[in-house]
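Following the same procedure, sequence and fold were stored together, as reproduced here:

>
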Amino acid sequence: MESKHAVYMIRCKDGSLYTGYTNDLNARLQKHADGKGAKYTRGRGPFTLEYCQTFASKTEAMQQEYQIKQWPRVKKEEWIVLKNGGERDAYSKELYSS
């Protein structure tokens, strides 16, 4: 069975970044778009998916999420570029609020 434990970063319309964990990325992104996601993201949409990585276990994913949340913004921005193959928005997906 394929892993569904994912760590993701979304960029809010104000340019801030939010990092989270989920076991259903599409449903979680829709919750953010609907204003029912994390308290931090409410009213900050639309969002752009900047980074997503899946892991074999919840533990691995949660450890990665924790690590990313400890980084300063500059390191998060560098990570996004690195993981997107050097292209700033290579894998970004814009999510619109309803």
Q: What stands out?
A: The beta strands are 5-11, 17-22, 47-55, 93-95. The chain has a mean pLDDT of 85.
